[in-house]
Specification:
Elements: H1 10-17, H2 21-28, H3 36-49, H4 55-62, E1 67-72, H5 77-90, E2 96-101, H6 112-120, E3 127-131, E4 144-147, E5 158-161, H7 163-176, E6 182-186, H8 192-208, E7 217-219, H9 224-235, E8 243-246, H10 249-261, E9 271-276, H11 279-283, E10 289-292, H12 295-310, E11 319-322, E12 325-327
Helix pairs in contact: 1-2, 1-3, 5-12, 7-8, 9-10
């Protein structure tokens, strides 16, 4: 049976190059005192053997790994888009990027960030970006930036989008089309974004003089499975809404699927608006009207902020909120009963 090749060590490099371990260490760490031909020979052996310094050993020696961790609950469309922005920001920075996934939803995994950070901080990563964290605060040994932060008081530096204005504009748009029974498929109750999106929805109704109806609100939890059940409750009702504002695109797309299963036409019988503008929103049938939040930019700015914190450089703004805007597509129309 084939046996995996043992990992090359610094001693292997020294032996093959005919030099001391100290000389190899100097070459790896780009220190003075090694002749050019010796440096070239050691580098050739390193390449031949595929030698890589252990991150743990490097951190113990230099107190720095030059690795940033991105911690996500799951690799779903929002976090995937955010990772693209993080990858953009890392180029040319001298840092590397490692992604850690909790491997699923967070409903039964509250505090997973604490466990991951306790394993990683100070040995494998120099800092971390937490994406939609489940806790307000963690005891960390390295800088941390939160994207779409948890609700409640926190000293975390944060990056998010203007959820309040985005939800208000989305609801105002539906009101402007003539809708009055507008349901809300709310987000994850522990996240600030979900609270702000509900607040924006309520504020738009209030300004328009449309009463808030508690029975038109369901929790979608930013989760397709949960949203499918909630949407079915809303739409399989004698007094169903003529429009649904879903707190993210995944739950909006799930709502469209439920509507079609029930024989409702979108947008003729039901208008649907989402929030995020993930790539899937433009590809669903019909294409989804949604609130664009610059997810990729959020990832980019979070990594930029984290690198400055790691380098102990000044950060001009530690709580950054980016603009949102409505993107109108084919999932919205005036209600069937409108004149």
């Amino acid at each position: 049976m084939h046996q995996p090749r043992a990992r090359a060590t610094i001693r292997d490099v020294a032996e093959h190059a005919g030099v001391s371990v100290a000389t190899v260490s100097k070459v790896i760490n780009q220190r003075y005192g090694v002749a050019a031909d010796t440096t070239a020979r050691v580098q050739a052996v390193i390449s031949e053997l595929g030698y890589e310094a252990s991150l743990v050993a490097q951190s113990l020696r230099n107190h720095r790994t030059n690795v940033i961790g991105i911690l996500v609950a799951d690799l779903e469309p929002f976090s995937t888009e955010l990772l693209k922005g993080a990858a953009d920001a890392i180029r040319g920075s001298g840092f590397e990027l490692v992604v850690y996934s909790a491997g699923g939803g967070t409903s039964d995994m509250v505090g997973w960030e604490r466990r991951y950070l306790s394993r990683l901080s100070g040995t494998l990563v120099d800092g971390a970006v937490l994406v939609t964290p489940t806790v307000v605060e963690v005891q960390q040994g390295a800088p941390v930036v939160a994207v779409d932060p948890h609700t409640g008081p926190s000293d975390f530096p944060t990056v998010d989008a203007d959820s309040l204005r985005g939800a208000r504009v989305a609801t105002e748009y539906l009101l402007g089309l003539g809708h009055r029974r507008i349901a809300l498929l709310a987000g994850r109750e522990d996240l600030q974004s979900a609270k702000l999106r509900e607040q924006g929805y309520r504020e738009a109704l209030d300004v328009a003089g449309v009463p808030f109806v508690d029975s038109l609100v369901r929790i979608g939890g930013y989760d397709a499975e949960l949203a499918t059940s909630a949407a079915r409750e809303l739409l399989d009702s004698p007094e169903r809404p003529s429009a649904v504002f879903a707190a993210n695109d995944i739950t909006a797309i799930a709502t469209i699927a439920v509507a079609q299963e029930l024989g409702l036409r979108v947008p003729e019988d039901l208008s649907v608006v989402g929030f995020d503008n993930i790539p899937e929103s433009a590809l669903c049938n019909p294409p989804l009207t949604t609130v664009n939040q610059p997810i990729r930019t959020m990832g980019h700015r979070a990594v930029e902020m984290l690198i400055r914190l790691i380098r102990e450089q000044p950060v001009e703004l530690t709580h950054l909120t980016l603009d949102t805007e409505l993107v109108v597509r084919g999932s919205t129309a005036p209600p069937a009963s409108a004149p």
